[in-house]
Model the fold of this input.
Amino acid sequence: MNNQFEPTTTVGAANAGVHVSGAPLTVSTAMNLADGLLLNEVEQRVVRVRPMSTPVDQITRLIGARSASSMVVDFYSVDTKPTEAQASTWTAIGSLGQSYQGKPCYRLTTSDDAMFAPTETILVPDVSGADHEGNAAEGVSLVLYVDSRCPDGAGLNVVVINAATDDSGELNVTLAPGTRLVRMGRAASELDMQTDQFEALPCKSSNNCQIFKAQVEQSTVMSLTRKEAGWSFSDQEEVAVMDMRLGMEKNFLFGTRARLTNRRSGDETMLTEGIWTQAGSSFTFDGDEITHADLVSMMRRAFTGAAAGSNRKILVAGSGLIERINRMDPGRTVGASDKVTRWGIDFSEINSKFGTLYVVHSEVFDSCGHDNDGLILDPDYVTKYSFIPLKVESLDLKGSGVRNVDATVITEASCVVLRHPKAHIRVIGG
Done:
């Protein structure tokens, strides 16, 4: 069907417009003949796109940063005395005197003789012992008593407390090299007032505070010009801080500690070490899929032994590791629960009998080539040191005759340290 209106157009006499005749003026006609005349609806709010989250920076800020009086931060850590060693040699030496009548005595060397002291007891979990009647008993482990250190300084003189007799009625005990030994408590006699001294000295570690900066400038003419959408100097500062924090997150995670001399100014530049390399141990997932057993093993590593600390820790992970965990069919022992919000971040929970992990995806892991990896952090042992807290300063570039602009510079000098490294674990996706 032919349109009943057939518009005709004529250019104005002074070429200053277009005249339409023979048809009503419609939107489509106006858009075709006068581009830009009709205004689109403009959303006055500018959406701040945050392409990558910064969970480590966020958590350390809200936990509370400590003030540093130097750009180099020295901190001390101390853990407990070791509790396990391995047997090296095991030699029968006969009696150590009438005090141990009927108890076989041996010279024992271990992978760490220094961790054992006289009067301490040692459990040998993988060697069966006897019950109180001297009969071999299932589930009863061998126990040793440390009588003294060997005079030559190599090895321990130990007494076997609960050896079971063999078929011939003899008390023969064998400890193969590599047998696990667990240090237990001391056993003092009735009149003992003293025992071997025990002291501990903390271990010193260091990290550098790195100076992070961002500068925002806007010309005076730009500030006076009317904008189609609300976009002020403060908005630009907010975006600059977001970008600055994103860079800080990458340094806090994967940075390398160093000191450089600026070739132009001769000033020293300090780089901070990331917590990825500070973590005390690693756990590796083998294969393409994570099984329920794999996840239980990771939870055990994260909450027991040398890694023991808080019963709630944080897993910051790349998208690949998060995907593999989500593909796993959770069982009754380990499973995901509803989200919880801590430190202003929404976490998913993974619960187990060992402890609870707060899980959050970090796109910094993806962008830094660690999309299949993660980092388990104990928040009780993560500390941020600030030599210069985050601050915004105005620059008088107009008064100094440099540029006709409003300018601010955003500065922070800080670092993040792990005070108990073994409580934090790198998770390698394999």
Remarks:
- Residues 42-49 have pLDDT under 50 and may be disordered.
- Residues 233-254 form the longest helix (22 residues).
- Residues 49-78+202-430 form a domain with the phage-related protein like fold fold (CATH 3.90.1690).
